[in-house]
Write a structure and sequence with these properties.
Strand content: 5-15%
Strand order of the largest sheet: 1-3-2-4-5-6-7
Largest sheet: 7 strands, mixed
Helix content: 25-40%
Shape: globular
Radius of gyration: 17 Å
Number of helices: 9
Structural class: alpha/beta
Distance between the termini: 47 Å
């Protein structure tokens, strides 16, 4: 039986092991569809000293498997804002890949509008600038389990041997179904621009996100926008992890040391 997603900060945030110092910058990392906080577990050592890296654990995955996945972005933000506020007492930055980029960007907009808080930088990865996002009507998202598996194969981020494992499929499909509804059902609503600098990362062979679509993030902030393209497809951040972390490290301001 699924329980309602708890609102406590500790439920939503997982520390990423690494070098850290009191009073430094907090970097929140938002995972891509179907994944959890563990995709960032190796990131800590590649970030600068003084950065406290935290992965956001969304409900319905890993150690939150029994929490109901959230398929609606506004509902997710309603839960995320109070959960993360206790961590926003010092400078913070966001990183999000694919679906995580949409969640982190819209969270930054919500925090700016409702709390007067803004990240010192947002890093969006593997995601078209929001006005380029192509939402799909709800009827198109009513997929069978087999069609969902085909979607996972198309994304090419899950090993085929896992997709052949019935236990894994039973485990991941409800969460991926909710994530797909959130991602594919998202519609950009124009509004206030952010003012923080932005880094937009993409893969040179990503069929879903072009360099032109990455450049479009510049239209959504009054801050400086830098676009960087890495070798690889949609999941370049895994194969190119060291280079991605180096670029994130260069983009983060020195805070508290």
């Amino acid at each position: 039986m699924h329980s309602a997603a708890p609102q406590t900060a500790r439920s939503w945030v997982r520390p990423i092991p690494g070098r850290t110092a009191p009073g430094g910058l907090r970097l929140f990392c938002f995972p891509y569809a179907g994944s959890g906080a563990s995709v960032f577990r190796e990131w800590g050592a590649g970030l600068p000293e003084g950065v406290e890296a935290l992965a956001v654990q969304l409900p319905g995955r890993e150690d939150r498997f029994f929490d109901q996945p959230i398929a609606d972005l506004d509902e997710l933000l309603d839960a995320l804002v109070p959960a993360l506020l206790p961590y926003l007492d010092r400078p913070f930055a966001f990183f999000g890949h694919s679906m995580g980029a949409i969640v982190s960007w819209e969270l930054a907009r919500r925090l700016q509008r409702e709390q007067g808080l803004e990240p010192v930088r947002v890093v969006v990865s593997g995601c078209r600038a929001l006005p380029f996002h192509e939402s799909r009507p709800p009827g198109e998202l009513d997929l069978s389990d087999e069609e969902l598996l085909d979607e996972l194969r198309r994304l090419n981020g899950t090993p085929e041997e896992l997709l052949q494992n019935p236990d894994f499929v039973t485990y991941i499909l409800p969460t991926f179904r909710a994530d797909l509804s959130l991602f594919a059902g998202y519609t950009y609503r124009p509004g206030e621009l952010l003012s923080c600098p932005v880094s937009a990362f993409g893969g040179s062979a990503d069929p879903r996100v072009s360099e032109e679509q990455l450049k479009g993030w510049a239209e959504l902030t009054t801050g400086r926008t830098e676009v960087e393209v890495f070798p690889g497809g949609h999941f370049f951040l895994n194969a190119e992890r060291e280079n991605v972390l180096r670029s994130i490290s260069r983009a983060l301001p020195a805070v508290g040391h």
